[in-house]
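hey can u run this one w/ zinc ion bound, need the structure tokens asap thx
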Amino acid sequence: MNQLHDNNNESNKKFYQCPECGLHYKDKDQAEKCEAWCKEHKSCNVEITSSAIENKKIK
Ligand SMILES: [Zn+2]
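ok here u go:
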């Protein structure tokens, strides 16, 4: 049961992914907002995507 591999890259599973742009969110709410926005506008809302995991890593 030992996990030899660093699972950091796999940990995205516990986040919610916007199927439209592929960004991950901690909040299901945010992910749904992003998905709705992406579908409607065919682009990303900076206010929403700024809270994506991918963008949180960048200081
Ligand atoms: Zn999105």
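The longest helix spans residues 28-41. anyway lmk if its weird
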